[in-house]
Write a structure and sequence with these properties.
By secondary structure, the protein is an alpha/beta fold. The chain has a single domain, classed as 3-Layer(aba) Sandwich (Rossmann fold), CATH 3.40.50. It is built from five helices and five strands; from the N terminus they run βααβαβαββα. It has a five-stranded parallel beta sheet with strand order 2-1-3-4-5, sandwiched between helices. Strand 3, helix 4 and strand 4 form a beta-alpha-beta unit. The mean pLDDT is 98. Bound molecules: 1,3,4-trihydroxy-5-OXO-cyclohexanecarboxylic acid. The site of 1,3,4-trihydroxy-5-OXO-cyclohexanecarboxylic acid has 10 residues, from loops.
């Protein structure tokens, strides 16, 4: 089994970007954790981060992964093109947000991705990615 992990704009700066909100774990550390947990669960983990929606859409359309985990970052709130790409993906897509988007600014309270995701894990920090990976493997 293979799981694609997508991270959107500014998540490449995890660890130093507003650590009081997003924590101190870097993206490289997070991706390593996911690959290691994937190995334990018997699944390959492919990771892509981009600040450009087009790259995330291309990754979703080209991959041979069976499931995807996505933190679309700010694209969550306005990207219809990313929503369409998530809807078009053959396997289940799990949406993750590190912070609780419902407890922040009003514009963050609406996700265009949630309605086309298998499920959403919100506000549990980077643990959300690990839980999503377990859910993806469990559902295989
Ligand atoms: C985020 C929440 C978004 O509103 C924000 O734009 C992000 C990160 C999160 O993981 O909490 O960049 O997706």
């Amino acid at each position: 089994m293979k799981v694609l992990v997508l991270n959107g704009p500014s998540l490449g700066r995890l660890g130093t970007r507003q650590p009081e909100i997003y924590g101190r774990t870097t993206l490289a550390e997070l991706e390593e954790m996911l690959r290691a947990r994937g190995k334990e669960l018997g699944c390959e983990v492919e990771c892509v981060q981009s600040d450009d929606a087009a790259d995330l859409i291309a990754a979703l359309s080209k991959t041979d992964a069976d499931a995807a985990i996505i933190n679309p970052a700010a694209l969550t709130h306005y990207s219809y093109e990313l929503r369409d790409a998530v809807a078009a993906f053959a396997g289940p897509v799990y949406e993750v947000h590190i912070s609780n988007i419902y407890a922040r600014e009003p514009y963050r309270r609406h996700s265009l991705i949630s309605p086309v995701a298998r499920g959403s894990i919100i506000g549990l920090g980077i643990t959300g990615y690990l839980l999503a990976l377990e859910a993806a493997v469990e559902a295989r």
